[in-house]
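Researcher: Let's run the pair from yesterday's discussion. Sequence first, then tokens, for each.
Model: Starting with the first of the pair.
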Amino acid sequence: MTLLNHSLDAALPRPSACPGLLRIVAARDGGICRIKLPGGRLDAAQARAIAAAATACAGGVLEATNRANLQIRGVRPGQEAELIERLLAAGLGAPSAGGDDVRNLMLRPAAGHDPQALL
């Protein structure tokens, strides 16, 4: 999917006003971009990519949500496409804008660390 298609998806009506990676929602301090982390996992390269993108395209503020997502706050106007491109290049985000509307599962913080437990 090209970035142009992501821009078109962002203009379509959606079932909720919650932000996502491909649908940045306006707030008083700039846009909010929410990154869903599958299973709440984030590797070091992805963490560095998020930090670099937040610094380059937004105010550098990151928030952890109750559903194991990360939010980048203060996305500057005109920087949305670059932010999305950087995050997708890091392997973050759903392949389509509809993936932003899928609810996450709540997991225990230790999920996946105990070899005897099922994930």
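Model: Moving on to the second of the pair.
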Amino acid sequence: MTKEFTLSVDAMGGDDGPKMTVEGVAQAFAMLPHLRVILFGNEREIAPILSTMSPDVRSRMEIRHTEDIVTNDEKPGVALRSGRNSSMRLAINAVSDGEAAGVVSAGNTGALMAMAKFVLKTLPGIDRPAMATSLPTRRRDCVMLDLGANIECDAENLVQFAVMGEVFARNVLGYKEPTIGILNVGVEGLKGNESVKQAAQILQDTHLPIQFYGFVEGDDIGAGTVDVIVTDGFTGNIALKTTEGTVRLISQFLREALSSSLLARMGALLAMPALNAFKRKLDPRRYNGAMFLGLNGICVKSHGGTDAFGFAHAIKVAADLVANNVNDEIKHDFAKLHAERYPDQTPQIVAIK
């Protein structure tokens, strides 16, 4: 992006609060020279951290003071009712008011989704926003959605996720003709529940330029069989957490094996360049930042336990969504899908039914 733009940040979110978020913003500036940030949070906690940074970094951040926060264990409904002055809510409001092009928070996921959906609303043609993230595979990065925002989904929801995921893969990941697969218990057409079967049929029949592969299974995620993996939030969240846990397990086993003897440690020393490359490839911080696709505004959720490096990458995700006009592309594709499926209805219909 070559034009200056602004993001709003919930500075109080995450396990380490302002220390992690403010330092993450500073690291993001190195990747995004045209970025400015509005920090929402307690100025008494934020200002001392800013004072240790260079004048150039400080000049690109603005503090908006509030003492209210949304705690990690606060229920979404409670946060929505009582958190109108919270750092999270004010950061979202900045997007709605046009002050910021997107919002990034490492705070309570449920509260962030509830607030963002209430304030920003959904794009035309979308019933429910979906959480999405990119993942490394043997072939190239893929995008998977939903990751937990929608526990139960019908066929229409899955079709909407597929279209949004395809737009992201094409515009942000840069894939010319991304392939789409629906996560299922088998690749055969007769397997799965009615929702996945109906969604598959709709995607097969559409005349949109969508490359629908068909059903995929859990081991296809790491194999990179498709570029977009579509599933309900219940299954997607389990698949994501299983993948993260497997990466940690492999990393632990590798560390134990390479430190088990003097000979192993010597071998590790010789293999250090390759091991560092392996570590970088699987570093979850590089894939930090789950997007709430389908909202009428850019909203990115950072992992609460990440560090400044990981938070900087979440900010980069938000910047990529802004730079590639993802929401405009989603609206364009949904308008075409709706016109194709319901030619007798007016184009102002805001949701596929």
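Researcher: Give me one sentence on the second I can quote.
Model: Residues 233-258 form the longest helix (26 residues).
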